[in-house]
Specification:
With 321 residues, the chain is an alpha/beta fold. The protein has two domains: 8-105, SRP54, nucleotide-binding domain (Four Helix Bundle (Hemerythrin (Met), subunit A)); 118-308, Rossmann fold, CATH 3.40.50.300. 50% of the residues lie in helices and 12% in strands. The chain is built from twelve helices and eight strands. Strands 3-2-4-1-5-6-7-8 form an eight-stranded mixed beta sheet, with helices on both faces. The longest helix has 18 residues, at 214-231. The two termini are 29 Å apart.
């Protein structure tokens, strides 16, 4: 496990490099289209309908989704390139339009609850990287000098409980667990009481990731909410959905379903490294407008960072920074 020993500036630079590497396939897919759309149109100051069609198709193929693609196409069609069309100018224009979609949803997950603890339910399908993301989130809060506790509320998977215990030990944070198959609401109740007594700032709760039975999941989450409400009417303060970027447009379906059953308040996108589908971030922002708290581009403990919309937009569009 890595430890945070870099300065803020060096972390920022290495993070930009890691993000650029992680989104390389997404960027290459899109920038190839942007370059080919300019073939034979040198010196023009406006994009033709044929060019706009090609760019819109390229945006959809890069998983930005039809809504975002149509919005970007419309904005590009209104613009004028006074110095003449070239690939650098087109990339910059696309980056700006992507950033305009992403900026309103870029909202770090902040610890503001009073009284403490702030209760954060983390949900997501099995295999999305949910448990590892919880550990990375805990590490982010530790770097901000918050006291953190974990709760293993995904009681139907012994592996999830064990994995969370390992991370808690590595991070040096307390964890509340129960028996496999136990009542998640009871574990959450015990965790909130323990966190309150210990002066914990952030209680991060792992929850079940079963979507094959939406009613069962809905009932379980509703029970957890009722139990939390008896202790603190404001809890849970956050319901964070973890999404696997490699799922592309299927991730949008997960937002839809979990939004119905769990009242999702924000998103974290994982596994952006090595996928050509990183554009789904833009599709999610355009279609749902939910806060995007953080993104992950690797397996290391510090490979999850607050979402920087301008950097992400520039990387996707292939603009150097």
């Amino acid at each position: 496990m890595s430890t945070p020993a870099e300065t803020t500036s060096s972390q920022s630079g290495s993070w930009a490099d890691r993000l650029r590497g992680g989104l390389r396939k997404t960027s290459e897919r899109l920038t190839e289209t942007l370059g080919s759309s300019l073939t034979g149109f040198g010196g023009a100051t406006r994009l033709s309908e044929a060019q706009l069609d090609e760019i819109e198709d390229g945006l959809i193929e890069a998983d930005l989704g039809p809504r975002a693609a149509a919005r970007i196409r419309a904005r590009l069609g209104e613009g004028r390139f006074d110095k003449g069309l070239d690939e650098a100018a087109l990339r910059a224009a696309v980056a700006e339009e992507i950033a305009a979609i992403l900026r309103p949803v870029a909202k770090p997950l902040e610890i503001t609850a009073f009284p403490r603890p702030q209760v954060i339910l983390v949900i997501g399908v099995n295999g999305s990287g949910k448990t590892t993301t919880i550990a990375k989130l805990a590490h982010m809060f530790q770097e901000q000098d918050y006291r953190v506790m974990l709760a293993a509320g995904d009681t139907f998977r012994a592996a999830a409980i064990g994995q969370l215990k390992v991370w808690a030990d590595r991070l040096g944070v307390p964890i509340i667990t129960g028996p496999e198959g136990g009542d998640p609401a009871a574990i959450v109740f015990d965790a909130v009481r323990a966190a309150t007594d210990a002066g914990i700032d952030a209680l991060i709760v792992d929850t079940a990731g079963r979507l094959h039975n939406k009613r069962e999941l809905m009932d379980e989450l509703a029970k957890v909410r009722r139990v939390l409400g008896r202790i603190n009417p404001a809890a849970p303060h956050d319901v964070v959905l973890v999404l696997d970027a490699t799922n592309g447009q299927n991730a949008l379906q997960q937002i839809e379903i979990f939004g119905q059953v769990a009242n999702v308040t924000g998103l974290i996108m994982t596994k952006l490294d090595g996928t050509a589908r990183g554009g789904v971030l833009v599709a999610a922002a355009q279609q749902y407008g939910l806060p995007i708290h953080a993104i992950g581009v690797g397996e290391k403990i510090d490979d999850l960072r607050a979402f920087d919309p301008d950097l992400v937009a520039q990387v996707i569009a292939g603009v150097a920074r």
